Write the structure tokens for this entry.
Amino acid sequence: AQTVTQSQPEMSVQEAETVTLSCTYDTSESDYYLFWYKQPPSRQMILVIRQEAYKQQNATENRFSVNFQKAAKSFSLKISDSQLGDAAMYFCAYRDQTGANNLFFGTGTRLTVIP
Amino acid sequence: NAGVMQNPRHLVRRRGQEARLRCSPMKGHSHVYWYRQLPEEGLKFMVYLQKENIIDESGMPKERFSAEFPKEGPSILRIQQVVRGDSAAYFCASSPPSFGTHNEQFFGPGTRLTVL
């Protein structure tokens, strides 16, 4: 079964600084999707960024970017110019490209932004 | 276009009672997924449904839990004879028909179930 590991239960960053959240995964598939979701105190799951495994180029969405290392099965999230509103739980997730449609989530990283 | 709707947002039940959680997918979406989030944990897949069909229930506990997605109306996650260990946040997600592979899942706000 696919597993997703987030080894940092908590992280903190100064406002306006950059922080990187780590994620590794295990799969025998060659084609799949990877996601980062944000869960603020409201508990709403918000998609931050998505990466297709067949794309070599790292995905970016404004201040959010990923470092996708397929051979190492690593998928880290970089948040630049951190803002107070970035404070939340961040979950890394994996989904097969074919077959099972469900997402496999890591245990999350709680990000604190220090003013 | 309204997002995924879940109700109730909060549900309190005593041990032994039944809990019914409802999920209305986004307009045009025919696939529904249920996930459970225990305190301080990530979301765990429970079941994947299309209209009138259960596609994958590999994450559902074998007893007391059931799910349906009828032709008309919302998807229902039903938990019979609840126990304290069922206390969790239950999230529903929906996605459009799987034409191609970009069937991104959109999440509802969740239902927080508390069992007393």
